[in-house]
Give the backbone structure.
Amino acid sequence: MFSRVWRRRLAADSMGYALSRLELESEYSESDASNSGDDENSSPNEPTNILDNEVAQLTKLRSAPHENSGDVFPGKRKSSVNTVKMLAGRECNYSGRGKFSAADRCHVLNKYLPEKYPSLIDRMTTRAYVSQFSADGSLCVVAFQGSHIKVYNVDREWEVQKNILAKSLRWTVTDTSFSPDQRHLVYATMSPVVHIVNITSGATDSRANITEIHDGLEFSRDNGGGYSFGIFSVKFSTNGRELVAGSSDDAIYVYDLVANKLSLRIDAHTSDVNTVSFADESGNLIYSGSDDHLCKVWDRRCFKPKGKPAGVLIGHLEGVTYLDSRGDGRYLISNGKDQTIKLWDIRKMSCSSNCKPVLRKYEWDYRWMDYPYPAKTFKHPSDQSVATYRGHSVLRTLIRCYFSPAYSTGQRYIYTGSHDSCVYVYDVVSGTQVAKLKHHKATVRDCNWHPYYPMLVSTSWDGDVVKWGFPGNEEAPAPLIKERRRERYRGLL
């Protein structure tokens, strides 16, 4: 059973307790994707698009309640669906299932966006670059510019489980990734060597090769290149057997952890590869994004005979800073230095021969200049994206964007850090800005939504690590095992 604290929170829906502004809006319907009516949270511009394709329908199916959820009493006319009515309908078994479906659960939890009650977890004197939850949400890693990487135990009131001092640091820790079993962490810097650390060992402090061994994985083929290139992005495969990395030498690398050697190098782009990701659990498809303005799709099953990408996604006018897969091998989003997030369907990608760069008609450097205002209205003449989301600012650093969790939101939202010190949340279907989280005093480079709780962590160049969500929501104890955590949620939802 859920804790009494969580029961009170969910049951207090009718009193408006701790609700996001979505609760104050009209209920979402399949025929009307309404805009937010709150001035603070509404987008400065009209939504650029309202999706009417497959991803829109999938999102609605994942987050729309059962058709009988609004019927509290038999024979009464249907009314708007809220949490109290849904709980009453479940108890009366109007759905005929005797429990909430996954869509019912998402419909309830969608109302509780983690947009309020910021609380400080930690503060460092150097810039924070990375913040990531583990797959089951029991751990959170934060990486700072000054060699420090901290792994927090979320289930133990955010105590530091591992305090890592990085080895071979050059400029900053650019990326980290948990192994699927959450026993190891890899971290990358502007170096061709990626290091792997055992985070389950007894010692809290982990100084590279002094108190603990940080195994170095060499991504440079000649092993003598020194700082010949740096790694911007590194990710574990779902089975934990491989790493994929994007680098400053315009290439993608795949490292075989079982054989302990580099297994693949792809001359992928014509500029820095800022971001890479496996498309799904199979590990066959790899997405990449680069400063050459392009996102590319690589199919390892047919790469060797062709040596070319399976396709190219055209639409960004400036470099791509980050991309996130929806996990279905079809859809992904990308953050761009043209101040937009774009949603892509890889079934609409082009062959590489169709790529024609758009010549910039202005001088601009994102590292120190603001984006030219007239350029904000430009659109690529060959834009293949499904949707575009605007409002946040992508300047100074490789700011990241993500889909919201499938378990609690049905991936209904997209969220991102921003140079203006805020975190932005957009509705996938309507394009409306539904939340803007304000606390930080400098650029928010990374943020991450807990896979099960309505809680989000943001990290900023001001050195703050901040948790967003209900006050005291850590009072609901979280089991260390993923399945037990999910069973706890199923007990109510």
User: Anything to note?
Assistant: Residues 4 and 81 are 23 Å apart (CA to CA).
